[in-house]
Amino acid sequence: MPRFLSAKPDARLIPLPWNVPLAKWPTEHLVALPRGISRHVVRFITVGDEVYAAKEVIEHLAIHEYRLLHDLTRLGTPAVEAVAVVSGRQDLEGNPLDSILITKHLEFALPYRSLFTPGVRHETVMRLLDAMVVLLARLHLQGFMWGDVSLSNILFRRDAGSFAAYLVDAETGELHDRLTDGQRAHDLDIARTNVFGDFCDLQAGGMLDESLDPMVLVDTIESRYQELWNELTGMEEFSGSELYRIESRVRRLNALGFDVAELDIRTSADGQTVTLQPKVVDAGHHSRRLLRLTGLDTEENQARRLLNDLDTFRARTNQQDVDEAVVAHQWLTEFFEPVVNAVPPELQGKRDPAQIYHEVLDYRWYMSEREKREVPLSVATQGYIRDILRNLPDEAMVRDAMVQVQEGDNRQLANPYDPSLGYADDDDLPPVHDPWEDAAQDVDVSQLNHFDINELRARG
Ligand SMILES: Nc1ncnc2c1ncn2[C@@H]1O[C@H](COP(=O)(O)OP(=O)(O)O)[C@@H](O)[C@H]1O
Ligand SMILES: [Mg+2]
């Protein structure tokens, strides 16, 4: 009898064929979705309306990873959510099988290889690197040393015009009270080595734009990380006549999406010099505000955009003196919800609601510019659904993703549930190229506000 370790068990998982090695599971329980390269056997399994990722791994590692993922979720760090560990498995002959770690499939996650394809704009790549850097800094702020940063161990999600990065593989992680500079440097070193390897792989497969040099890319990761870390934690010294710098530091940190828990401010005996060191709590400054006001759970830049729209609404309707929560409720029911509810069910898998709203706002802006008039939101919504949303690839990628991808691809996968095995008619071993990702379209970021440390600094 297998044992289930789980804080929130899903009873529908219990009858699954745990006595079969994961690689041989009947396809009725599986769903073919894109994913990164892995050491272990990984499959996406489906029960009811839920999709889980299952990884076959030895017991103590499965439990270690389960606990770490739990801790990260508790700390509010973006990571996949641990659901259960199934251990004590045996096959029909009574031979022991490895444990299985089950996590919730992260919806709307984009496979990195479709994000770095040729033709992707330089800026997009920089935004992906920024998302990685923010993830790494957030983990480090929490005392988490990853030990295995790589592109395959990160999932990217759209976040307005930028991306948000999630940790997917915590097997080598360690959680400490706080990290030493040495530990952070070590993690960054691993990131450099692995990500350099990932980029070289992409390059060898002709999947990296020629203008992008792997070495420059990893240098960028390092320098942006150092910059962000200094902004988040660095000590600042200024004269007693420049006290406004305290306020501007807080504003800059908020602009980066981080909240400040404490400011350690010291003044020299003669009052001439002030030193300032912030203690930053986690990112999510805007998404927490939006959640508090509206109950919407979004990524940070999406929240920024939605809050801007809310603030605009408040100003236009002259409600500056009305309680913010009351205005937020009005905005939610009169603006946000009608847009999201206008999306037909069959198109809902293409974008999450906050992303749709953000893209409708963009669409309206361009349409208004073109037509030199103020386009009503309802008109923009219909236009967006018709011109843009309908033509986008499905990003929730649940269930019918397999069918869709196969229609666009004449070649047969060796195993549709394990895209890393490549095509059936391939003679060469083992292709790194993931055919699922060919079907995923280029990312359109021809516009939009984005995360740029320098720009935010300048604004701050
Ligand atoms: N919960 C999840 N949601 C979405 N994708 C996942 C999830 N868990 C794993 N994956 C995909 O499976 C791949 C392999 O998982 P990972 O935990 O990194 O395995 P390994 O330890 O063998 O490297 C990842 O790169 C990711 O693309
Ligand atoms: Mg991995």
Automatic annotation (TrEMBL):
InterPro entries: DUF4032, Kinase-like_dom_sf. Signal peptide: none annotated. It comes from the Bacteria. Residues 408-438 are annotated as: Disordered. It holds the Pfam family Kdo. Residues 227-389 form the DUF4032 domain. This is DUF4032 domain-containing protein. It comes from Propionibacterium freudenreichii subsp. shermanii (strain ATCC 9614 / DSM 4902 / CIP 103027 / NCIMB 8099 / CIRM-BIA1).
